[in-house]
């Protein structure tokens, strides 16, 4: 099996979160923030450990696990880690790679300046958060 | 690469055959890994290199022959002590004087950082007592039922585990239309060749600034361009700031003939008299349409991984580096490990975005020790003999590590010192912090030195008790005294069952 060798900018351009960015803006994202690839089973975000970042899945899948119980599954285009950064609190869940998992990572200290510089990404993020909230409320109801 | 027929019998070590571990490479990463494996209890490890002599990239680079990492020939601690290593970021590390603090012996003290040749001499001295089969080039990789088959210019090597210490040395040109017509940093000639010329450098990282600095006395105009702005706050803490920032200073002060531009390069066109460059501003609105006599691609390097991606080794950083677990194993092909500066692609916890020193000698020399111990334990069942402590000894030991351990101070937030507390107190070695945090182990305490959210260098303690991990920051200190009475009191309280 040949591992996917994707051009980083192309991979970013396919994500809904970055759909409004121009090519030069995508180049800045690609040059500013690392990608990382995790082994299946490897932890990406740790419950109760500080200093995590904002992660966007470029390829692969991940589990969200709270106190050892799987709560949801994330896939390409999904993002995680933002709740902890926006509320300045420790993560309340582990995120664990379910397959080989490729992510873009924005460090905690750089998320706010990035979103303020790229309001279209912030707006897309808000839309997705709103959908998640509605889904969660529908579930509760 | 083959040896001439009719010369004396081949006396090189490690002929083709069966081994436990095969290491590829004789740069600092390969030498350090070979040295550590030879002392790990693994009896059959081989080191192979296509080069005729040790030193890896330092046999040739940096282009302008001066390193950016310091070695202080004289320091408050004697050369050869563990504490001295914090003052010497270039020497490999060993257990005997023949393998300790070697780079300082070759420095002429004209600079606080070694010249390329001084670094190479230090590595060659280290290599005198490390067996390497030189002029044996790795060509192919495949699997068999027991592990791997490494095809080389000398024949086949079979092994259960392989370690590739192959450097990040293959010139990588960014996928910009037309840029491949321009020479890469690696092909740059002497600076006088650029006399009176306008030079456009694609890139704004180490190699780009090194070139610009070297060309300042020669070129008539220098433009450095890449999409991302220079992060001045980051550069202030970088070794780059000392050596390469003159071009940037000239630019921001509106000086003469140096420009540092934030732009995505759209196209480079070669013509009879030079080049035409078209680019779009990234931190500003607008386009660039510029002529230059010379263009140089300083867009970095990639690891020369040969056929590893074809056998499933996942890559990262635009396909430039193999993706690795916290123990520097391929994320997708177990049994394939990496050493040397390729280890930089195993980023660790990245707390607050901090990256490790795993990509430079000062960091990966320690990773190699950790790696050799890990391979010995995991693949060959060889357990390390580690000392037991009383409780007071354990606290004193951990405080001493927080105050002085070069592994923790150089690999901040990346390597941790562990004491196991499951059944009494027992030293647990130095491990990747990510492994300690994620493992399902017994009770233990680990300490690290990290950058806190505000950037302060801060001691951290990770306590695992009854399967639950907790993280604690100890007080920071302006003089970095992390073994005070208060630190002792807090650490003691955390260790309490």
Write the SSE topology.
The complex is a heterodimer of chains A (about 140) and B (about 500).
Chain A: H1 8-13, H2 23-32, E1 35-38, E2 43-45, E3 54-59, E4 62-66, E5 69-74, E6 79-80, H3 82-87, E7 94-97, E8 101-106, H4 108-117, H5 119-140
Antiparallel strand pairs in A: 1-8, 2-7, 3-6, 3-8, 4-5, 4-7
Chain B: E1 17-24, H1 28-38, E2 45-48, H2 116-127, E3 138-144, E4 147-152, E5 155-164, E6 170-171, E7 198-202, H3 206-215, E8 221-226, H4 232-235, H5 240-243, H6 246-252, E9 258-271, E10 274-281, E11 287-292, E12 294-297, E13 301-302, E14 315-316, E15 321-322, E16 336-338, H7 361-380, E17 388-389, H8 391-404, H9 406-410, E18 415-420, E19 425-432, H10 433-438, E20 444-451, E21 457-465, E22 468-473, H11 485-495
Parallel strand pairs in B: 1-2, 1-5, 5-16, 7-8, 7-12, 8-9
Antiparallel strand pairs in B: 3-4, 4-5, 6-13, 9-10, 10-11, 14-15, 17-19, 18-19, 18-20, 20-21, 21-22
Helix pairs in contact in B: 1-7, 8-11
Percent of residues in helices of chain A: 25-40%
Count of alpha and pi helical runs of chain B: 11
CATH class of the largest domain in chain B: Alpha Beta
Number of helices of chain A: 5
Runs of chain B with pLDDT <50, length 5+? none
In the CATH hierarchy, the third-tier topology of the largest domain in chain B is known as: FAD/NAD(P)-binding domain
Identify the quaternary structure here. Answer: heterodimer
Structural class of chain B: alpha/beta
Mean pLDDT of chain A: 91
- On the 0 to 100 scale, the average pLDDT of chain B is 92
- Weakly predicted, low-confidence segments of chain A: 1-5
The CATH class designation of chain A is: Mainly Beta
Biggest beta sheet summary of chain A: 4 strands, antiparallel
How is this structure best described in words?
The complex is a heterodimer of chains A (141) and B (497). Chain A is of the alpha+beta class. Helices cover 38% and strands 26% of the residues of chain A. Chain A has helices at residues 8-13, 23-32, 82-87, 108-117, 119-140, and strands spanning 35-38, 43-45, 54-59, 62-66, 69-74, 79-80, 94-97, 101-106. In chain A, the strands form two sheets. A four-stranded antiparallel sheet of chain A has the order 1-8-3-6. Chain A has a four-stranded antiparallel sheet with strand order 2-7-4-5, with no helix packed on it. The longest helix of chain A is centred in the C-terminal third of the chain and has 22 residues, at 119-140. Chain B is α/β, with parallel strands linked by helices and 497 residues long. Chain B has eleven helices and 22 strands. In chain B, strand 20 and strand 21 (457-465) form a beta hairpin. Chains A and B meet through helix 2, strand 1 and helix 4 of A and strand 9, strand 14, helix 10 and strand 22 of B.
């Amino acid at each position: 099996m040949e591992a996917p060798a994707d051009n980083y900018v192309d991979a970013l351009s396919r994500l809904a979160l970055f759909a409004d960015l121009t090519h030069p803006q995508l180049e800045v994202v690609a040059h500013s923030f690392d990608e990382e690839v995790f082994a299946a089973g490897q932890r990406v975000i740790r419950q109760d450990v500080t200093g995590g970042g904002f992660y966007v899945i470029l390829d692969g899948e991940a589990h969200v696990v709270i106190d050892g119980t799987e709560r949801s599954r994330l896939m390409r285009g999904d993002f995680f880690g933002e709740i902890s950064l926006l509320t300045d609190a420790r993560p309340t869940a582990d995120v664990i790679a379910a397959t080989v998992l490729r992510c873009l990572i924005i460090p905690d200290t750089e998320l706010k300046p990035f979103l303020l510089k790229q309001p279209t990404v912030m707006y897309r993020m808000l839309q997705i958060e709103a959908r998640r909230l509605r889904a969660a409320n529908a579930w509760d109801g | 690469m083959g040896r001439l027929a009719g010369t004396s019998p081949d006396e090189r070590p490690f002929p083709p055959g069966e081994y436990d571990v095969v290491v590829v490479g004789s740069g600092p990463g390969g030498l350090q890994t070979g040295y550590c494996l030879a002392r790990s209890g693994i009896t059959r490890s081989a080191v192979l290199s296509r080069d005729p002599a040790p030193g890896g990239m330092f046999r040739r680079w940096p282009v302008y022959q001066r390193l950016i990492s310091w070695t202080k020939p004289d320091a408050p601690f004697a050369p050869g002590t563990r504490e001295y290593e914090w003052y010497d970021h270039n020497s490999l590390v060993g257990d005997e004087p023949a393998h300790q603090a070697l780079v300082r012996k070759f420095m002429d003290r004209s600079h606080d950082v070694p010249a390329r040749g001084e670094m190479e001499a230090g590595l060659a001295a280290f290599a005198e007592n490390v067996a390497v089969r030189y002029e044996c080039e790795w060509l192919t990789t495949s699997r068999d039922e027991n592990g791997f088959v490494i095809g080389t210019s000398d024949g086949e090597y079979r092994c259960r585990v392989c370690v590739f210490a192959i450097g990040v040395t293959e010139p990588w040109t960014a996928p910009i239309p037309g840029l491949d017509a321009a020479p890469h940093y690696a092909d740059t000639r002497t600076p006088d060749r650029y006399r009176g010329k306008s030079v456009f450098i694609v890139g704004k990282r180490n190699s780009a600034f090194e070139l610009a600095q070297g060309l300042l006395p020669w070129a008539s105009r220098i433009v450095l361009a890449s999409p991302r702005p220079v992060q001045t706050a980051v550069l202030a803490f970088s070794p780059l700031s000392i050596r390469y920032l003159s071009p940037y200073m000239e630019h921001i002060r509106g000086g003469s003939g140096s420009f540092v531009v934030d732009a995505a390069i759209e196209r480079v066109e070669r013509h009879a008299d030079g080049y035409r460059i078209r680019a779009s501003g990234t931190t500003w609105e607008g386009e660039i349409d510029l002529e230059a006599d010379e263009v140089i691609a300083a867009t970095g390097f990639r690891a020369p991984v040969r056929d590893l991606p074809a056998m499933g080794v996942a890559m990262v950083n635009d396909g430039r580096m193999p993706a690795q677990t916290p123990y520097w194993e391929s994320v997708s092909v177990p049994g394939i490990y990496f050493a040397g500066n390729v280890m930089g692609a195993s980023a660790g916890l990245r707390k607050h975005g901090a990256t490790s020193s795993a990509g430079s000698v000062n960091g990966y020399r320690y990773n190699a020790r950790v790696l050799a111990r890990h391979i010995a334990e995991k693949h060959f069942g060889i357990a390390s003999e580690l000392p037991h402590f009383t409780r007071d000894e354990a606290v004193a030991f951990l405080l001493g590590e927080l105050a002085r351990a070069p592994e923790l101070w150089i690999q901040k937030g990346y390597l941790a010192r562990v004491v196991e507390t499951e059944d009494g107190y027992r030293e647990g070695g130095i491990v990747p912090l990510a492994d300690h945090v994620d493992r399902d182990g017994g009770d233990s305490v680990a300490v690290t030195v990290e950058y806190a959210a505000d950037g302060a260098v801060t001691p951290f303690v990770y306590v695992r008790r009854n399967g639950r991990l907790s993280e604690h920051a100890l007080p920071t200190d302006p003089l970095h005294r992390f073994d005070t009475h208060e630190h002792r009191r807090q650490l003691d309280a955390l260790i309490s069952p």
